[in-house]
Amino acid sequence: MYRYHALGGASLAVLGSALSLVPYAAEAQTALPAVTVEAPRAATARPAARKPAVRSSARTQVRPPSANPAPAASLTAGITPSVARALLYQAPTGQTETTIDRSQFDNRPAVTVADVLRESPGISVKQGNGPRDIGISIRGSNARNGFGIRNLVIFDDGFPVTQPDGLSRSDLIDPRAYGAIDVIRGPSSALYGNYATGGALNFRTRPGGSIDGAEYGVDGGSFGYLNNYLTYGKKVGNIEGSLFASDARGDGFIGNSWYNTQTVNFLGTLQATPDDRFTVKFINNYLDTRLPVRLTLGQYYQNPFQQGTVALFNNGFNGLTTTLSADQAGLGRHDRRTIVGGRWEHDFDNTTTWRNQFVFDDRNISQPTSNTCAIGDFPSYNYMSDVTKRGEILGMDSTTFFGGWYNTLAWSSDTRFLRPGGNATLGQLQANVLGEHTNYGLRAREELKLTQSLTAVAGIGWETTTLKGLNSVYKDPVTGGPTFFTISADRQFQNTAPEFALLYRPNTEWQFRGRVATGYGTPQVGNLFVLSNGQNGNNTQLQTQKNLGYDLGFDWTPNSALKLSMTGFYEFFRNELVTQATPANAPNTSFQFNAPRSEHRGVELAADWKFYPGWRFTAAYTYLDQFYTEYTEDIRSPGAGGTLFSFNRAGNKIPGISPNELTARLGYDHMWGPRAGLGAFVEVQWKDSFYMDNANLQKAPGYELVNLNVHYKTDLLSDYFKSLNLYFEIRNVFDRTYIASANNIGNNVNAAGFQSPATTGSIYAGSPRAFIAGMKLAFK
Questions:
Q1: Residue 504 vs residues 186, 375, 395, 501: alpha-carbon distances, Å
Q2: What's the whole-number mean pLDDT along residues 590-605?
Q3: Please, what is the average pLDDT of the chain?
Q4: DSSP character string of 21-67
Q5: I need a surface site. Which of 82, 231, 390, 516 has the fewest CB within 10 A?
Q6: Is 3 in contact with 206 (CB distance < 8 Å)?
Q7: Helix (H) and strand (E) counts for the chain?
């Protein structure tokens, strides 16, 4: 097991003797990586009036401090404020969370983050617009979004990679870079602010000391897939750094889906003084990919791997059109994402730490994804500052957090028509958006150990969000003729999010948790200017979505061979923001509306059972039941002066939500003798069918996939090499045809008031049977 620095900095003073009594975080499917503990500064460096903490005298390897401490361990003595602050991104006390350890994906080809996140309950994934653009959903939070990631907040080593407008993209995530991934589930705006209605993800890279050398790996297989990656890390004195770089490319299994993407991820830390730690972060991703057109359900059944077609204006503006394939039109994405962050932590004393963090995040896009091309640069700035205090209140161990933040995103983006000619030939300007999105607020949190077995948490967040935008439109949405008009928006939203949790651990086997919490997510500037027909217009009436959620769960660990966790949740939404694809005359465009009331409920189950030496069974299961309780949809029949019909959607299932999802794996690893290190597993993925439209008339079919893996790992005892990993995997063994992505679609109505699903392209097929092999060589 490798050593791991918690997110506090290069050197964290943690009591090794106390933490050895603390179990790993709740619902972790495998033991979390160990924390590296440094010998602290001498006790004489502190004034005698301050209460000193007992320090370890040598570099010691211990378990990471748990967000849910055992009754036997003292909170004040066991965890420094820096570690306590870091745990808010890994395993917040009382919250349902799963930590996916590197050991669960190190011996398999991890092509995208979807291959890794399926190991956690509550997670659902779908293919987005590009090879690594994976739609990630927690409890159905992002299942209704057409691209990217919404309604959850993502961090990389504690640095936010969600921009101020709530958009995250997984293009920059290469799973090979990470040592662990924390999945935090449930409404979390008290802790993470705007858009954390579903929860949060924290991707943790490996610190340099745990790598201690260089690693080279290569994966390759079907459909031209090839990924070369390199990792280097070292710790020298009080400086530690790790660098990851990868080059991935492939031809794709659908026409016009080849890709080429490069990623760099760097983490560096410096213990500048006994009281000051500095951390720097750098991520850069370049993506060049072609993109097929999404299919209707009928086209999918006819030929799931066809490219689809797009109609382009011959003059690049209006009038006559020519229908072309995606390849002939040159559809694709050409994006760059650059993130630079810095963090400074200062210890006032042994119980109080002040943290300041700044992140610059620039997203530059050129995306000819339909009959139009989006072009723009989206630079954002994020600053946060907080204080963490460890101590006692009325004799009870206490952890207090208080902080504030400010982040802003200002941009100008164009939408231009495409015209025939190939290579995404640009036509005239359709629209321009000048936008500014700003959030600022305060948060406070108190964790109090009421008894040796019972811990209480109370928190609250307050935030102001300002949206300013000017939409300049250069084409009349009715006649299609050239014209010019503008739509402006200036909205301000005030949101408050309280939370309360109780954690009860009567003994070392059982842990019970209950939580009530709130979340909120405001619209984005772009949502205010798109109508349900896909045209530019006034949609500025959108409101903030809010949810109130109740969690009740337990973790049972009777011995080191079995871990079982279960959580039931019930969430009540008001003004839920639902994303829906627009009609066929505006492909790859989506609009948002508020559903006044809806309810989300479900069950999450995680199991990890080592039932016999070398054998291991793991499972992650999610049940979701989400439906409207108050929502009336108005649809107008076609033609001039069409009749407006109203349909009550109360009781209808919310589209895009699969009610049942399961990932289960049975594996064996030989542990002794000449075949030690040889292993294999079989994996089953099941996704239930789900509705695609509000009227619940059309369903995307479910599927079951089977994957097989064989792997071998050996330690190479030589002067140059440390270890060798080899693996081979067959994915979709039975060559099932299935849907990897199905965006929500609208409904049509005829003159007589009869509804039908809209003929909107929304589907990408999943990969046929694929063979992937890989190796990784670690150098000293």
A1: 19, 52, 19, 10
A2: 91
A3: 87
A4: TPPPPTT-SSPPPEEEE-----GGGS-TTS-PPP--SS-EEEPPPPS
A5: 516
A6: no
A7: 8, 42
Cβ atoms 394, 381 nearer than 8 A: no
User: Who contacts 766 (Cβ-Cβ below 8 Å, separation ≥6)?
Assistant: 127, 703, 705, 732, 737, 738, 739, 740
Detail the DSSP E strand segments found in 350-481: 352-368, 372-393, 396-418, 426-449, 454-475
CA neighbor of 153 nearest in space, from 165, 171, 145, 140: 165
pLDDT at 200 over 80: yes
**Cα Rg of the chain, angstroms:** 26
Q: What is the mean pLDDT of residues 460-487?
A: 83
CB atoms within 10 A of CB 321: 15
Contact between 154 and 84 (Cβ < 8 Å): no
Contact between 385 and 392 under an 8 Å Cβ cutoff? The reply is no
d(C-alpha 486, C-alpha 764), whole Å = 35
Domains and CATH numbers, the chain: 3-779 (2.40.170.20)
Tell me the two tokens of residue 576.
């839920």
In terms of phi and psi (left: phi > 0; alpha: psi -120 to 50; beta: otherwise), the region of 684 is: beta
Q: Is residue 673 predicted with pLDDT exceeding 50? A: yes
Q: How far apart are CA 145 and CA 142, in angstroms?
A: 5
List 681's β-bridge partners, or say none.
667, 709
Q: In terms of Cα–Cα distance, which of 635, 636, 493 is closest to 164?
A: 493
**Is the dihedral angle over the CA atoms 575, 580, 586, 587 positive or is it negative?**
positive
Token readout for 181 is 């991934």
What's the CA gap between 66 and 381, in Å, rounded?
A: 32
Cβ(737)–Cβ(701) under 8 Å?
no
For the chain, give percent helix, strand, coil, nearest 5.
5, 55, 35
SS3 211: helix
Q: Is 611 exposed, middle or buried (0-12, 13-18, 19+ CB in 10 A)?
A: exposed
Note the pLDDT tens digit of each residue in 129-181: 999 999 999 999 988 777 889 999 999 999 999 999 999 999 999 999 999 99
Both structure tokens of 348: 């006032």
Q: How far is CA 232 from CA 228, 264, 725, in A?
A: 14, 12, 17
Q: Rounded to an integer, what distance in angstroms lies between the CA atom of residue 733 and that of residue 726?
A: 20
Q: Count of residues for the chain?
A: 780
Query: pLDDT by residue (tens digit) across 530-555?
Result: 877 667 778 888 999 999 999 999 99
Query: Residues 57-101: pLDDT tens digits?
Result: 333 333 333 333 333 333 344 688 999 989 999 999 999 999 999
d(CA 164, CA 157): 18
Per-residue model confidence (pLDDT) at position 589: 61
List, for residues 362-417, the tens digit of each pLDDT value: 999 999 999 999 999 999 999 999 999 999 999 999 999 999 999 999 999 999 99
DSSP 584: T
pLDDT in tens, 290-328: 999 999 999 999 999 988 899 999 988 888 899 999 999
Whole-structure pTM value: 0.89
Q: Is-contact 176 244, C-beta < 8 A?
A: yes
Q: Which two tokens stand for residue 173?
A: 């995530």
Give one word for 528, left, alpha or beta, with left for phi > 0 and alpha for psi -120 to 50.
Answer: alpha
3-state SS assignment for residue 357: strand
Three-state secondary structure along 216-234? EEEEEEHHHEEEEEEEEEE
Number of alpha carbons in the 13 Å side-chain half-sphere of residue 219: 27
Contacts of 147 (CB under 8 A, 6+ apart): 128, 129, 133, 135, 590
H or E segment at 753?
none
Give the integer Cα–Cα distance in Å for 621 and 665. Answer: 12
The more confident residue out of 17 and 240 is 240
201 pLDDT higher than 60: yes
345, 8 contact by CB (below 8 A): yes
User: Strand, coil or helix: what is 368?
Assistant: strand
Tokens of 136: 């990630």
